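Cross-check.
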Amino acid sequence: MYCFIEYLYNICLCYLLINVRKHFYQLYLVRCKDTNYYYYKKTVNVI
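Predicted model, tokenized:
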């Protein structure tokens, strides 16, 4: 699953794409600009 963080008019948008295949996941904590909210960003490494 991918989580893309984009900044648009100071709004944090998180887009999730689900992939059924097996992948390695790395979890990153991403802080949105001008907010106190935190989002988890997952990057996928294909086996």
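Strands lie at 2-8, 11-17, 23-31, 38-46. The longest strand covers residues 23-31. Passed to J.P. for a second look.
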